[in-house]
């Protein structure tokens, strides 16, 4: 197991982030974000993943997660593996994708530099897991991830961003089943 997938325990929630290689802005198209949302929902329903907070930005994702079943590092590994293949395939098949050749070239080039990959690399390998041992830490990370789209100028108010749990915390129903803290 890589040093980048270290979760010290499974009892506490963790804040994790992962980004596309070279911070490529893949998630400017909703069809790619939707693949990620569907995969997270699959992990919630079938692997025991617990989501406390999440946001998808143009080149990266932030999650606050826990588990009721499988170890978090296994869930994250499977999530990244599946989404990397599915999103690259969606890019290949998207007739409207003007950046297709360039993005595929960049993913292939990154994959050739990493012996752990067969053909391409979509995600950077680190997750930077941070154990959240108390509610103050959880609140701080929730505020951080919910304000990401505001800081980037995507929306004026965090709960207006469709690809975030800020909707759930503002009394709405978002795209992913969130356990509110």
TrEMBL record:
Gene3D superfamilies: Transposase IS200-like (3.30.70.1290). One of its GO terms (biological process) is DNA transposition. Residues 10-148 form the Transposase IS200-like domain. One of its GO terms (molecular function) is transposase activity. Pfam families: Y1_Tnp. InterPro entries: RAYT_transposase, Transposase_17, Transposase_17_sf. This is Transposase IS200 family protein. It comes from Ancylomarina subtilis.
